[in-house]
């Protein structure tokens, strides 16, 4: 079995003070994908990844922003930071690790803001990341591996993926263009939404809730954290769980970890 977890930590040092380290010590995951690490790697205490092999992609353009990582119990055979597009190479938004039979990537898409340069950046990321996903799938297949891209995609794909979908139809994260792009990932690019493959009905469960107001208490959230995999791996998913905290004060991030168990590598 291969167990993989993904979570946007909303600042790793802040999360560590609230419960991340306890969660990391308790998880049964073989691989953990992190987003919004924020801290430069040279400022992170060694205890944050003690017992793990960690590969980070930090933002050197905006120090203390973004940042993604892949933690694994076994050392990866190879790693890659970025996906070959100069604008995003130093932005701390993508890192991947190659293991026997599978490539695991951690991604953090820009959040965007409609009508601003932030949305333009998000759309450029989407436009350039999609062909890389196609390229990666082909490259991995030629090497006998499947692909699993985990992370904060900052897009709710369907109406069942956010509580207040009617009020957010023109907002970043739920625009028609963003949703259509996600559909392309799950069709033309040949990937699967692992959670929805096992749990096609909604609404929710959600993976992110604003800290403002009563969003968490009212479960007014968004499902924007995904396991996105090639079909053969998706078909071998045994369970996938959103680890929603029991109460507001038990939160160590504004996201919830999403953990999946894959019957992988295959024995047949």
From TrEMBL:
Requisite cofactors:
Mg(2+)
Domain named Endonuclease/exonuclease/phosphatase: residues? 5-242
Query: Which keywords fit this entry according to its UniProt record?
Result: Hydrolase, Magnesium, Metal-binding
Give the coiled coil ranges: none
Q: Which domain of life is it from?
A: Bacteria
The family database entries (InterPro entries) matched by this protein are listed as: AP_endonuc_1 (IPR004808), Endo/exonu/phosph_ase_sf (IPR036691), Endo/exonuclease/phosphatase (IPR005135), ExoIII-like (IPR037493)
Q: Which PANTHER family match?
A: EXODEOXYRIBONUCLEASE III
Task: Please name the PROSITE patterns in this protein's record.
Answer: AP_NUCLEASE_F1_4
Query: Does the record carry Hydrolase as a key word?
Result: yes
Taken from the record, one Pfam family name reads Exo_endo_phos
Protein name stated in the entry: Exodeoxyribonuclease-3
CDD domains annotated for this entry? Nape_like_AP-endo
């Amino acid at each position: 079995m291969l167990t993989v977890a993904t979570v946007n930590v909303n600042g790793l040092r802040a999360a560590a003070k609230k419960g991340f380290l306890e969660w990391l010590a308790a998880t049964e995951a073989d691989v953990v994908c992190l987003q919004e690490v924020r801290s430069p790697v040279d400022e992170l205490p060694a205890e944050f990844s003690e017992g793990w092999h960690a590969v980070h992609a930090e933002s050197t353009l905006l120090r203390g922003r973004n940042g993604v990582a892949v933690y694994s119990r076994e050392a990866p055979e190879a790693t890659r930071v970025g996906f070959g597009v100069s604008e995003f190479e130093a932005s701390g938004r993508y890192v991947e690790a190659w293991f026997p039979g599978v490539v695991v990537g951690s991604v953090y898409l820009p959040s965007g803001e409609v009508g601003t340069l932030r949305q333009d950046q998000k759309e450029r990321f989407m436009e350039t990341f999609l062909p890389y996903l196609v390229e990666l799938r082909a490259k991995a297949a030629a090497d006998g591996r499947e692909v699993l891209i985990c992370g904060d995609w900052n897009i709710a794909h369907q109406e069942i993926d956010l509580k207040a979908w009617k009020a957010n139809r023109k907002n970043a994260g739920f625009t028609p263009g963003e949703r259509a792009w996600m559909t392309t990932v799950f069709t033309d690019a040949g990937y699967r939404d692992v959670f929805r493959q096992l749990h096609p009905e909604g609404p929710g469960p959600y993976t992110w809730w604003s800290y403002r107001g009563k969003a968490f208490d009212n479960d007014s959230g968004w499902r924007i954290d995904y396991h996105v995999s090639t079909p053969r791996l998706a078909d071998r998913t045994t369970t996938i769980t959103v680890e929603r905290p029991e109460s507001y004060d038990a939160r160590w991030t504004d996201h919830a970890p999403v953990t999946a168990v894959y019957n992988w590598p295959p024995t047949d």
